[in-house]
Amino acid sequence: MTEEQLISDVCRRASNPATQTDYSKIRVREVGPPATSQSIEATERRLGFSLYRLHCRLLKTVGNGGFGPGDGLIGTADGSLDVDGRSLCELKEAFWPDTEVALVPLCDWGDGIWSCLDTATGCVVSCSEFGLFSTGQTLHSWLEKWVAGDNLWLEMVVPGTTIVQNPSTSEYVTVATVQGMKGDPYILPARDGNDGPHHT
């Protein structure tokens, strides 16, 4: 699938409130108005590095966050924010204050599990209490799977169950858990310091 076809398919899914995010039935998010060049430039200045080209195109074409896998992409400061009102920059700074780490959070899956993007390579990486793991996907292939309706959650986590006691009823119930993450541990590539803008 070409990049143009992918963006068109993402736009189509994002325009339907029922399919806008994987969690549309749980939490309604507004798709942010398309990001301006000024907003992208301000974000990149604050981050200290350039956003990945396809990521920029999505924010400028489809909308400034609020659509996509999990609870949807996180926008820039004037876009659609996470459940706690944090922008892409604020989340990145909370997770990795070091500007040498060129990862940005893409979307929240809940339970402290995030999909993130290596802006130097376009690789999608899971981030959780278990550490960083490669999904084996680029942003392009990851979104191709999303528009096709693949279950990206089950491709990312090692699911499990545990038995807990309900404090109200004292009954024991089985609940779903995450026992780990799939993929190989992710090692961030070294930055050469000459990483110019990836977009026009």
Summarize the structure.
With 200 residues, the chain is an alpha+beta fold. The chain has helices at residues 3-14, 37-47, 53-61, 88-95, 139-148, 152-156, and strands at residues 103-110, 113-118, 123-128, 131-138, 157-165, 172-181.
What is the averaged pLDDT score?
92
Task: Give the strand content.
Answer: 15-25%
Q: Uncertain runs with pLDDT below 50, 5 residues or more?
A: 193-200
Broad structural category: alpha+beta
Order of helices and strands: HHHHEEEEHHEE
Helix coverage percent: 25-40%
Q: What spatial form do the alpha-carbon principal axes imply?
A: globular
Largest sheet: number of strands, sense, barrel closure? 4 strands, antiparallel
Query: How many β-strands, per DSSP?
Result: 6
* Span of the ends, CA to CA: 22 Å
Radius of gyration: 17 Å
Q: Spatial order of the strands in the main sheet?
A: 1-2-3-4
Describe it.
The chain is of the alpha+beta class and 200 residues long. 28% of the residues lie in helices and 24% in strands. The chain is built from six helices and six strands; from the N terminus they run ααααββββααββ. It has helices at residues 3-14, 37-47, 53-61, 88-95, 139-148, 152-156, and strands spanning 103-110, 113-118, 123-128, 131-138, 157-165, 172-181. The strands form two sheets. The protein has a four-stranded antiparallel beta sheet. β1 (103-110) and β2 (113-118) form a beta hairpin. α1 crosses α5. The protein is globular, with a radius of gyration of 17 Å. The two termini are 22 Å apart.
